[in-house]
Design brief:
Helices cover about 0% and strands about 50% of the residues. It is an all-beta fold and about 525 residues long. A hairpin with a 4-residue loop joins β9 and β10.
Amino acid sequence: MAIQSGRYTTSSSPTPADGWQLEQLTPPSRLFGANGMRTGTDGRVYVAQVSGSQISAVDINTGAVETISPKGGDIIAPDDIAFDDQGNIFATEITEGRVSVFRPNGTAQVVCGDMPSANPITIYKGRLFAGECRPGGRIMELDLSGGAPRVILENVPMPNAMEVGPDGLLYIPIMGTNEIWRVSLEGGEPEVVAKDLGVPDAVKFDAEGFIVSTQVASGQVLRINPNTGERKVLATIAPGLDNLTFVDGRIVVSSISGQINEILANGEIRSIVPDGFNWPLGLAFCSDGTLFVADGGFSYALPIGGQPQCLGMFFYPGYPGYVRGVLESAPGEFVVTTSNGTVCRWTPATQTSEVLAEGYDRLYGVAQGGNGELIFVDAAKGEVFALASGKVESIATGLNEPLGVTVAHNGSCYVSEEGAGRVVKITNAGAEPVLDGLIKPQGILAVGDDLFIVDAGSKELIKLNLNSGARDVIASDLPVGAPEGVVPKFLNAIPPLAGPMGPFADITCAPDGTLYLSGDADGTVLAIKSI
């Protein structure tokens, strides 16, 4: 297994064509987010990564990252992990609704296949306990011999990463009630240990028997006396914390966005793995000169030449949901598509959102038509829709996974069909082919008389002149799509947080003609312009 500095390995660097220059605005992400964590017998921290379907081991002293279970492997969307005494990794696969074991020899096997939103997992004295992070979730003991699971608790409101305490009771952070509960391993009535927290999503115990708990909404790490509920803030990092582990008494904390930090004794933070994008997905160049970056559970403003600033995330009030497509509809106001099948108007400054249309399946790109209508695509339905005055009209059907949509200066609407490997123009008569022979076209943008298409299959940015039909590759070996030889597994929904997830290498443009592209493979944002 190769040691790697990042999450995406390739033999080639992004290359612009003659007359173009390319700049990487953000550094590559080293992980596909960072979710559940455990310390291995080798002293490294093992990190589950939902969005990348990957488990990695991180040396907290050097920051070196090694892939253990790779993207495209048998483990899909691991959210939490636990080790047994033989070195096997038990992983909850949240989008699959199951628990699997990943063995040191690289093989995997399903342990329990009926656990919707499987997330928390822990092992205690050879016994395996897991739960469902959903409204009405269950906490269960799983039979390692293949028998039926035993339910310990039912109707639990969003339980998350749990641990057995020194007293032999199971301690569970309950996100739905903002509390920490404990319950006997044999079942019975749970007891509230602490409440009115910052939405706890993980519980572990330090050497002195105190709870250490991450708070996803407040971004705090708390140390809590399990007997009195008295608490102390060990550190405040940022909203979006996910899990923690101990390495020789050192506290290491993960964030959903991808950063891993150590909390020092004085409350200061030492970065082990810097923050980064999980994907990124939709892009929009904004009237204030920043770039809106949709990253699923997080959305950012990226000042050109600056650092990303979080505009909102899952646990912010008013956040519209897992954001994929975006356009700026007015200064500081955005229309977004979400994986939950909604089209929303979102104002980050006031953290308010309004559902404009709902009930769809896999929404991707969104654009504004020549008459002000909103045009959006549903990849699963194979349809293109127009929304105006509160009414939605289907304007094209029978497409093969439409992802990107753009409107030219003359009002013509163009759509990329990833499944068909082509770009079509939407007319009253239906979809008229404009460009074929592509592999996986995703983001698409009309600028003047040119059409720019991101082909995630060929890893190229293609320019098509709509007048002459001339086709040119203006950048190649782009960090989009999957690495060579890897077939990513589809990520199903995580209700109620997200619908089906998937990549979307988007493209947008600044008034000066600079193109911006989302490098979903390595987590970068690229700037491409003519010289």
